[in-house]
Please model this.
Amino acid sequence: MPERPVILTGFMGCGKSSVGRKLAESLRLPFIDLDAVIVADAGKSINDIFASEGEAAFRARESACLERVLREGKAVIAGGGGVVVADSNRALMRSRGIVVNLIASLPVILGRLKGATDRPLFSEKDASIRVAALMEERQQFYADADIRIDTDNKSVEDVSALILKILEGLPA
Ligand code: S3P
Model:
């Protein structure tokens, strides 16, 4: 079992927060939701940050919060879907933690995101085309991980147990 933070990455709606909470509980570690840290820090919602400051400012906040939580010691951290895009974020995550990428298929993602109003990069309009394009664009960045798990047809408990088993097999 590695003595480093575990960071969950993956597209919006792939289950990072639910799996992260479960995994943290099993490992008896704190669970940190990076989006929640950004919101607390900014004192406004993700939607408000995007609307009033723009995406670039959100990404700067995201990188700063990532740096900070990775310094706080061992924890299970759920990143936002776009945290993998910046090279510097990926380098930081790979060097300081164990990166676990959760994979879900387009239909599963679309099903989970249906009706979402708290994700500025998602809209119901042309959802399938836009989501597919963004997934494709980010594919190479999600692949930059220590562990990759296909979550389709698996429960939160199944995915968490699978990650736990793999982590237990890794050197300290
Ligand atoms: C984003 C994903 C969101 C949030 C923000 C941007 C993205 O997090 O960070 O809306 O760029 O994919 P979730 O993946 O938790 O929805």
